[in-house]
Amino acid sequence: MSRQPQAAVGAPLSRVDGRLKVTGRAMYAADHDIDGVAHAVVVSSAIGRGRITAIDTRAAEAQRGVLKVITHRNAPKLAYRDNPASGRFPGRQLRVFQDDAVQFFGQPVAVVVATTLEVAQHAADLVEVSYDAERSATDLTRSPAQAGPAPFALPYARGDAEQALASADVRKELTFRTARNHHNPMETHATIARWDGDRLTLWDKTQWVIGTQTEVAAVFGIPTENVRVLSPFVGGAFGSALRAWPHVAVAALAAREVGRPVKLVLTRRQMYFTVGYRPAYEYKLTLGSTRRGRLTAMVHEMKYETSRYEQFWEANKALGQMLYAVPNVSQNVQIVPLDVSTPLWMRGPGYSNAAFAIESAMDELAHELDIDPIELRLRNEPHEDLSNGHPFSTRRLTECFRVGAREFGWNRRNPRPRSTRDGDWLLGTGVATGCYDVFRGRAEAHARLDADGTAVVQSATHDHGAGTYTSMTQVAADALGLAVRRVTFRLGDSAMPPAPGQGASQTMASVGSAVQDTCDKLRQQAVTLAVEDERSPLHGVAPDDVVVRGGRLHVKGNTSRGETYRQLLARNDLTHLEARGSYAPEPEAQRRYSMYGYAAMFAEVAVDAELGLVRVRRMLGVYDAGRIISPKLADSQAIGAMVGGIGQALLEHTVTDHRDGRIVNADLADYLVPVNADIPALKAVYLDGEDYRADPIGVKGLGELVQIGVASAIANAVFHATGRRVRELPITAEALL
Ligand code: MOS
């Protein structure tokens, strides 16, 4: 097949859906205007653990407009069929209104359905719940870990780390702690549910329409194909919408009970109790090194929180195994079951916490050995993935640091901590490595080329901010040889060809490759039609010698011999051509390469010497992320992640009152996130190049990679500015006084 000219891919296109978004015409879950919709408001538990002894719903039911109050006393038994396809965590998910148990503060204990939102809100306040409360445990540092390792967190070892530590020139034993963080997307989670007989339609905020479809079908015990999930726009999620949370089942149950469509929008406060969070970690890292800075051993002991009913897992071990050339490694992961709701992956899941520990420790080692922190990393650059012996598909971390050091002016740095001042401000710079796996999943797509020379391409993927509408349009436009404005990409509907959830940065590699495959097939159909058609100017040309550009098929290198799609279809009396294509990663057993994206993160901070206030002054990220499909979208990923990383480093902290498990700062006034005034000049640079071993379009994924290492770079800069090492996130003013 001849290679198509690439015109749209690589161009700094503005979002094709940008106008819809800024004019308010993009339809988010709760925006859909469904005839006869009733409103549901969830009543949340006011204890952290125990039993419901009584629920008095009479006052609520007496309100005019209240259609029904559903509690565990009157709710029907739901099927909660096993659903292996859901990617669920080991354990048993929360079953809504199926018994009197309260397992965490803020658990849904009732739902009020009314004709208006205001009546439902008021009536929800009137529901009286009595409890038999027990003492809840919500503090990671004071609760016992689950006995024995979880099946997904088996210990790892290579070499003999204990022995190597005992004989190391330098040994450091460090304990890091990271706070629980909440995703806090702008759009709150919301679901509209409508039953038509035994068929259910959900307009839902989700990063995984297929996941929600199978999960809700399992909850109600109905065939998967009876559920359709629509999610054309998502107002941010950062991972929180990667599973169907209990409120989705509540909305569907309420709609079935009242015989009307029901809309359920979580309040901002409820967003802190039932839709996941980045779990708190305690991460003990012991490392051994030679005097010359060659790592000899690393021992990782991690502990993180999960709920009592599910064992949350995330990828927190990879970095410790493959990032540096450490001959002796051991890893132990403990999970601590608490009276909390189950966590869920948040941007850079697992890797982010591990990177904070590893990259802070590298900085401590560099300081102790008096070696430049970049140089220390270069001295420990591996030649292969030591966890499996595979070569790296591409690994250009060294180049990221070299390019970054030049761009950032790293060599102007005085390595001595607390050596640079600007008035009352102590200045410091820091670096850290970022790294994330190239996840990929099976994806399918469909494309249709119409007689008017326009095309519609679709896949059941998502756009929770990544810019999928735009990037897929670019890939499709080049593969079809059409101008971007002639291509429409559709997503967010479980009835479309299946795609993975939009998580783990796998969308571009997976869906992008499926879109390219689909559009290649469609273009080839048109080319075959032309070269076999005696009336075509391309008759008899070898298919491989035909390319398509601007909707016109022509001989490669001879633009005058050809015809347009429109001419070709019209002459053949065709209304359209269509094709279906797919992408599937090679099975694990056949994976011959270790595939990761890499980043070098640089930060400069100023710390008020008297007040301990930390201000980030500038940041630079240099990325080895493979091919960049859309530079403008890439910047919005990278810069957005630096903003998020500044939050993680300095501000974000979900505070729990351990007396009853209540989250104290469950609103955006008290849960601190960076605002414009916190954000300085941020710059992202991408190394040219592609990784065709990773996938057919050469990308390595960007959304998580750009988040990992940001907080460590800032923490290391804080040390350089002040000489104070803070091993706990967020780094607050108190810690620096
Ligand atoms: Mo991302 S945490 O995989 O949405």
Radius of gyration: 27 Å
Per CATH, the architecture of the domain at 391-439 and 590-735 is 2-Layer Sandwich
Number of helices: 15
Q: N- to C-terminal separation? A: 65 Å
Number of strands: 30
Q: Low-confidence runs (pLDDT<50, min 5 residues)? A: none
**Would you tell me the structural class of the helices and strands?**
alpha+beta
CATH topology of the domain at 391-439 and 590-735: Aldehyde Oxidoreductase, domain 4
- Silhouette: globular
Residues in helix, %: 10-25%
Tell me the fraction of residues in β-strands, as a range: 25-35%
Hetero compounds: dioxothiomolybdenum(VI) ion
Task: Output mean pLDDT.
Answer: 97
Question: Biggest sheet, strands in spatial order?
Answer: 3-5-1-12-9-10-11
CATH C-level class of the domain at 391-439 and 590-735: Alpha Beta
CATH superfamily of the domain at 391-439 and 590-735: Aldehyde oxidase/xanthine dehydrogenase, molybdopterin binding domain
Organism: Streptomyces cahuitamycinicus
Protein name: Acylaldehyde oxidase
Pfam family, one: MoCoBD_1
GO molecular function, one term: oxidoreductase activity
Could you give a quick summary of the protein structure above?
With 737 residues, the chain is α+β, with helices and mostly antiparallel strands.
Explain what the structure shows:
The strands form seven sheets. This protein has a seven-stranded mixed sheet with strand order 3-5-1-12-9-10-11, sandwiched between helices. The protein has a six-stranded mixed sheet with strand order 7-15-14-13-8-30. A five-stranded mixed sheet has the order 16-17-25-26-29, with helices on both faces. The protein starts with 17 loop residues before the first helix and ends in an 8-residue tail after the last strand. By secondary structure, the chain is α+β, with helices and mostly antiparallel strands. It is built from 15 helices and 30 strands. Among the domains are: 391-439 and 590-735, Aldehyde Oxidoreductase, domain 4 (2-Layer Sandwich); 441-584, Aldehyde Oxidoreductase, domain 4, CATH 3.30.365. A hairpin with a 4-residue loop joins strand 27 and strand 28 (662-663). Dioxothiomolybdenum(VI) ion (MOS) is lined by residues 207, 238-239, 242, 345-347, 349, 503-504.
